[in-house]
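Listing S7. Sequence submitted for prediction.
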Amino acid sequence: MTAATHSTLFPQVPETADAVLDGLDPEQREVALALNGPVCVLAGAGTGKTRAITHRIAYGVRAGILQPASVLAVTFTNRAAGEMRGRLRQLGAGGVQARTFHSAALRQLQFFWPKAVGGDMPRLLERKIQLVAEAAARCRIRLDRNELRDVTGEIEWAKVTQTVPADYPAAVAKSVRDAPRDPAEIGQIYAMYEQLKRDRSVIDFEDVLLLTVGILQDRHDIADQIRRQYQHFVVDEYQDVSPLQQRLLDLWLGDRDNLCVVGDASQTIYSFTGATPDHLLNFRNRHPSATVVKLVRDYRSTPQVVHLANGLLSQARGRAAEHRLELISQRDPGPDPVYTEYADEPAEAEGTARRIRDLVAAGVPAGEIAVLYRINAQSEVYEQALADAGVPYQLRGAERFFERQEVREAGIALRGAARAGGNDSLLDDAEDLPSQVRAVLSTKGWTSQPPAGSGAVRDRWESLAALVRLAEDFARAKAGATLSDLVAELDERAAAQHAPTVQGVTLASLHAAKGLEWDAVFLVGLTEGMMPITYAKTDEQVEEERRLLYVGVTRARLHLSLSWALSRAPGGRASRRPTRFLKGLRPGSGSLGSVGSGAAGAAGIERGLGGGRRKPRGPVLCRVCGATLTEAGAMKLMRCEDCPSDMDEGLYERLRDWRSEQASKLAQPAYCVFTDKTLMAIAERVPTTDGELSSISGVGVRKLDRFGADVLAICAGEEGGAGADELS
């Protein structure tokens, strides 16, 4: 949801493969250069994981190491896949397949069905809920609308965990899962649903994966054909894979190991759909030779937001918590999070709307603000409050931008005007591209001022206004661009589902907010019973609720507000309590202890050494005063910034001169050799062995191999300078 800017929407395609690596931090660069064998990227929120993996693919393609058609990148949403395709196109690697698991499997199923099964492939059932309703009716089981939705979700869970109808009751009991109805009844409905599909020759989205798995298991010739096509695999959001998706991935891979997975166990929030972080957490066990890279430099959020996020996870329990990443903000300080207690829910909504109106008046775009809640039923009171305050909003989860009727109509009108050229009287007074677009879209409902209120009319205007802003950005980025050029750009974006931003405050559930970010985030309704939700009974269910709040906190770049109401309605009994997850973090809620210590989160790279488990990394302590260090620069120096330094100034200057020579030889920025803080740490500690040098933050295995001999020579009073030449 980042505001459109020409620098991000229309960057220049890098001229060379090496130029693809420009601007990556050391850990992201390690990801981009790790093109062979198994690679596991543990990427915290806001650490640039999509940037790292798209640059990895693009670098491999541009360097001739990877063939575009041999790479398959998979993720979990059409939006994420579209963003990945858009970024790869901007990096000059447009031929790479970036799809969801279901999209990739459906494509293969459609292609191989005649060969593997024969005849026409069954029709794909777009929405299964109506067929589930019919199955329930045939079983003489009455379901209301909410139960129908929940039972449909149970059937989906059973299928992705590869549970057949007869085994469903036992599987529910084993998983300690709360079934919305008697498990025996759901098993009965599930069996009837499957029978109705067979009778009508239809399949659902889960069947797409199941059938593809079945074909690849039974037909080795087809499996071999797919493996010849795809040689390299990248899986984003790996903490969300289900057992069925993992089985499909294993079949795609065969006995090869050119696999790069990216994920964060602390962002596992979809276990109710069958997702499990076990595959991510067990990756090193399955692939002992894997390279593991940790991304913890948070470029999204301020230190204040990151401190709260780290504090939330410092209280977490369970296996995912043991592998949590401690984020280190790379941004300048910002305002502290705001905690607000209200008397009732309407007061909370009205107070939130007032604060949002003030932010908008202060210059924060409405499209850079979000209100996030635990369940969708909470949205109504915020919709009303924002409408009353005159603040535009949009509900997350609406149809895709380029599929909206007004956007399709606008595309047709722009295409017609482009063909007509100077013969279109609409364009007589339009001197540049943006004014041409405004003139054309004015016939479709766009005006210079938005309509009052909210609803369908406002939604239509916001869509057209997004196209106008896109045209303005395009014109700034592409001097001399014509209407035909813009139409071609829109066509490419529609194909990639790379939509511009619609301006309006986003209202969304915490689950729907995953993968998005805003300048200002309001986390509302944070009371016991809602966060954690009342039906979270087991320890693991409660921990997932904590991770859900963590995801919400890490959506914020600058402004973060957390609020709760003591009663539901005005005049009600003030019996509610704020969520337990904020205890020790919000003012007046007791002491948490040392927030941000003890996490296995230091940035860096691990090489596969045969499967031995690494000891968990403890807190980093100042070597002068013993305080816990949390800032990136202090952790490099192993001391607080204001603690006295014993740095050898002459050695530091010699290291800087050597670094300049290396950077010049490599045609890279100086920080790509070593950062100033790393040089300062070397000059303070004056290492004499490889082991002492490698213990300094910022000196990874790769840099030790490249530059270690030079640095140790300089520390010993000798001259060094061969590192870059040897690398060449």
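Caption to Listing S7: primary sequence and predicted structure tokens for the chain studied. The radius of gyration is 27 Å. DSSP finds 30 helices and 17 strands in the chain.
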